Amino acid sequence: MQTLIIYSTIDGQTLEICRKIKILAEQMGEQVSLVTLEQAEVLNLADFDKVLIGASIRYGKHRPELYQFVNRNHAVLDTKINGFFTVNVVARKPLKNSPETNPYMQKFLKLSLWQPQQLAVFAGKIDYPKYGLFDRTMIRFIMWMTKGPTDLKGTFEFTDWGKVEAFGAHFSKL
């Protein structure tokens, strides 16, 4: 199987999740290409048997380029084994960590012409020391409002790696 994993990330957690899924797929005997959304623009999606896209949220939105890419390529994506996952800190909450209950996944499905076959939602990571002043202030405010961590010296990883592995193993078996 020729598998393409495409990622759209701001701070790198989506890339880390994609790397984990890539390792799992390779262990299952797949040939895997891991590329950014920008790099995927020049690839021929028809060359792949499977396509998985992972995308992060920043300030409540996926990047506009994600929608442009999937809407432009939905016809070919539909001919492949395919999947999509979103990474967001809201998914740290038990009632918002599934495709059916996560508001960002639901928004994606409403705005996208592509309706992926496999869906997943993963909680992300907050790394205050890594952020610039604006992002640090905004993210801290959002965390304060949603009862999340606000210690500006802290890094808080919410990703459930067992859930990532289970999804990656399932996608690799398709």
Describe the protein's architecture and organization:
- It catalyses: protoporphyrinogen IX + 3 a quinone = protoporphyrin IX + 3 a quinol; protoporphyrinogen IX + 3 a menaquinone = protoporphyrin IX + 3 a menaquinol; protoporphyrinogen IX + 3 a ubiquinone = protoporphyrin IX + 3 a ubiquinol.
- Catalyzes the 6-electron oxidation of protoporphyrinogen IX to form protoporphyrin IX; under anaerobic conditions uses menaquinone as an electron acceptor, under aerobic conditions uses ubiquinone as an electron acceptor.
- Pathway: Porphyrin-containing compound metabolism; protoporphyrin-IX biosynthesis; protoporphyrin-IX from protoporphyrinogen-IX: step 1/1.
- Belongs to the HemG family.
- Helices cover 39% and strands 23% of the residues.
- The chain has 174 residues and is an alpha/beta fold.
- The strands form 2 sheets. A 5-stranded parallel sheet has the order 2-1-3-4-5. Strands 6-7 form a two-stranded antiparallel ribbon.
- Helix 4 (103-111) links the parallel strand 4 (81-88) and strand 5 (118-123).
- Helix 1 crosses helix 6.
- 37% of the residues are buried.
Overview in brief:
The protein is of the alpha/beta class and 174 residues long. 39% of the residues lie in helices and 23% in strands. A five-stranded parallel beta sheet has the order 2-1-3-4-5. Strands 6-7 form a two-stranded antiparallel sheet.
- Quote the distance from N terminus to C terminus: 10 Å
Strand order of the largest sheet: 2-1-3-4-5
* Helix fraction by DSSP (H/I, runs of at least 4): 25-40%
The amount of beta strand, in percent, is 15-25%
What is the 3D shape? Answer: globular
Mean pLDDT: 96
The SS-based structural class is: alpha/beta
The radius of gyration over CA amounts to: 16 Å
Number of helices: 6
Uncertain parts: none
Number of strands: 7
Write the H/E string, N to C: EHEHEHEHEEHEH
Largest sheet: 5 strands, parallel
